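Supplementary material to the annual report.
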Amino acid sequence: MSFTALARLFQGARSPGHPVAISLDPGGAVPRTWAEFAATAAWAADRARREGGRRWLLACPGAWDFAAGLMGLLQAGRTVVLPPNFQPGTLAGLAREADGALAGTLGQAEPRAEALDGGLEFWTSGSTGEPKCVPRSLAQAEAEVAMLERTFGRLLPAGPVVGTVPHHHIYGCLFRILWPLAAGRPFLGEPAGDPGLFPRALAGTAPVTLVASPAHLSRLPRLLDLEDLPVPPGAIFSSGGPLAAADAAVWRRRAPGGVVEIYGSTETGGIAWRNQGPDPASAEWTPCDDVTLAFEAGALVVSSFRAGPGLRMEDAAEPTADGRFRLLGRLDRIVKLEEKRISLPELEAALEAHPWVARAAVVLLEGVRPGLGAVVVLKGAAPDRDVLVRALKDHLAARFEPIALPKRWRFPEELPYDARGKLTPRTLAELFQAPAGPEPSARPCPPPGDPLP
Amino acid sequence: MGMAITALEMKQFIISTLGLEELTPEAIGDEEPLFAGGLGLDSIDALELAIALRKRFQVQLSEQDSSLKEHFSTVRGLVEFVARESRGLTGA
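Predicted assembly:
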């Protein structure tokens, strides 16, 4: 299937019967055609023209209507406002500021062979909690889609693009909607991260492209035996946060192409990618071919057509000799305790090097005496809690000063990722508000300041 | 081995699995949408719950089952799903 610039998609690039999307109807998977898609987009374009205005909110919870509405609003040359979530309060706030809104299910009208124009506004929740607008011109979105096709197009199988991530965030919008439309791959309308849909979404006989996040990739193999899939996914993408090497390995065993991780943000779009395998160097990131990177005071600074000149990331990074780089964790994850600088990612890496530990996250806990809390996912059966905590502290004490040793410990079955695949200090800290719980044992941690043996 | 579970037990299972200690079973309606409304559960909670159900009741999520989505939306649906799958397992 030929790759087409989005701007010219409606000018004869696709035949009427071309499958744009797949719907999982009760009776089975049903292809939905270009003819229906173009008619739905035309309905949205007609409505935007009839009602006028420049900025239109696109609040369709279904990926099919979202994609058609997006194309239609761009046919009408509108700026499309993409909400950070579909909560009624968020939508009401954005709708008040917009000139019009599309929601729910769209109608159909006479298709138009029009070029696209206009732009996008991604609204993100932002680190401060206030919604933040990240504008993206159609040309910028086109350039990113073209970069994806150049870099990863040969990996895409013929089957549908199956997404577990929201279609209205930048990663889902690019990978589930815009790139498949341009590359002529059908996308699955339903969210495949839904446990009731995931087994069916991957049950087809054509290998799919799986667009997911670490939160899903770490859990789905426990929901479904990957060996039971009729065929493995042909390509797997992950974004939103780093994928644990162990989780990458689980998927690689079933899908030999491995997991392509994309590092980026709403503001920058894609910055770099990696595909973790047995070679330790595969943990390093390769910059996207249209991005220029600088390293300033340990921070990564990104310049590109979509990011603009010199956008400073909140991530610490160091270059490698061959033009790639290592991510060292978020800059705000270097904390100061009693005047000592402590790198939380360094502590986490040290914990994960212990044979009992599968995953570890360390968080700064405020309080009368601020200290560190460690959240550790164990590989298997654990010894007694006291023995376990003592052993892990001893392990860390070989490299870290006592001030850097976590005083409080939690051992959940999974790290508390949120729906967007992020591991936030808040959700980590919340684990320490509840009692330590029965596993591995209910005995309390040793009090702070206890001497190690 | 019977694996039937009552609606109350399912609510207690949901509360303990997802760490919703501030909720009481009475606060969850049998027909209330679990993942799209008032309870504030997200798609990762849905996954966690499905994984925990699989572990606890050995129920399999089948790719043939087009009614899974409905079963995974309410307490009543989950109770019916577990009852149906356990019958299948015990051959009764």
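The helical segments of chain B are 7-18, 43-57, 68-71, 75-90.
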